[in-house]
């Protein structure tokens, strides 16, 4: 059945001397797994899990080619010979599953700083990157030769480390891209000016790397098709560069990307607000211009989306990164006709992209094992237990899954008639529907494992006792809590109050002028603001932070929120602390000036911290003859990833 659904996705493809068994590529992406500049056992386990899960080709994260390139702490320093043993551990682990693995090598150029290296950053021209804001050194001719030689040296290290191919990153964060782009290359020598001159260093690197690795290894180039910045590379120039690369006769494939990893990063790792396949115009244009195999990327979360991209002729291979971060068995499940069992990526960017931005190791909001593949799983339980979980939110469902995977008999009690808890509410607001895949994935896994989920059951010590559990996991979530500045008796004539959950569920229907108080700094306030604006309300969001929804910057959602807010007329007011409520309106302190202002409104919607719904837990601890655990928001209200992690931890410990 799978082969009839996927005419192209699971057909082999030749990439120079390498044959990939299918067209699913685990493309390069940062992991922050390096230690002291060297690859680790976690790298090996991480890539091996995706190889075991059926990926046709794996391309590692970038390996730095030169000491001047150290833009973030946990970068692999490929220029050190000490990296070679770690490379061997990675390639041997992946090759055990019959999967080829390429190493991406790169110099980030001016998209960095001297924070870690204590050296000046190198770049084509002395133009500060908008993120790092540090003026780099314009490289001289001898330094260009050194850059070229450094690529060849690292490629040789990778060859010795057992890699099957090399990919040159010349795309979203690369000194080569900076040479290619008129926006960052203002040189007047033979490496600046015309496109032929700007591409000179790329062709010199290609020649040097090919000489270093010979013809037994594949060689690829990853190009940016559109930088999405003023004066930057566009698709026409990218096509010309692809033709130059092909004419050189030394490269076996082309990979693609969109955007610049600092100025337009939100388009490289696009969130769920951007449609899947949004960057397909780039590989499509390149494939029409060259004969080399072309890899297409751009938020492919479903194997049928990847199949359609191949079927329509946009590309020869498809990069699936976050899809395989969420589910290492993405390809294997699709191939055997079990695509419904795939743990679909949410494109929420919270634990993958977001953790990278916070200098933490890569994880996944719905897969608690991502980033921990090298750690041993707990030993098998001494006996089968009856496990009762109260609450079918993300934490409760994950606890049920983990306990059932260990062979326990698991029952879940849910008070409402639907699963999901807060995640279901989050998925019901504008542009956030894909967050509901978290619940869908968990419910499907519970069904597969035989977990008994019972709805419309209000748990109490008496009801729980009837089930005779050996262990109870309380995952009852949180409840809205009024902030300190809301008086117990709201004075007459004051604006009406509603919590965000009441607005989303329809329990409250604000109208007229609405103030949304954002004390959470994430999707809650911005999503409800959009919902209300779409209903015709006049909406203003006030926050004590410097930016409304400030944590949206970490997940790359901030840019499009600002675009949509402007389109919908949503006013954003920052540095403003709610202090009280009376008949004149909301009393607000402006932090920088200390000025108090009354904001009149018809309604005030509260996006403020909730309170743990922990009464059942403490009741059970007093009365129950069984082990009782609590997880998620009923411990402390946080985001979904915390509930999933705790659910997995408790379920695996039973």
Taken as a percent bin, the fraction of beta residues is 15-25%
Number of strands: 28
- The gross shape turns out to be globular
The average pLDDT is 96
First-to-last CA distance: 38 Å
What is the architecture of the largest domain at the second tier of CATH? Alpha-Beta Barrel
**How many domains?**
3
Helix segment tally: 23
Assign a percent range to the helix content: 25-40%
Low-pLDDT segments, ≥5 res: none
Structural class: alpha/beta
CATH homologous group name of the largest domain: Aldolase class I
- Per the CATH scheme, the topology name of the largest domain is TIM Barrel
Main sheet specs:
9 strands, parallel
Task: Kindly provide the name of the CATH class of the largest domain.
Answer: Alpha Beta
What are the key terms here?
654 residues, alpha/beta, TIM Barrel, Rossmann fold, FAD/NAD(P)-binding domain, 3 domains, nine-stranded parallel β-sheet, five-stranded parallel β-sheet, 23 helices, 18% strand
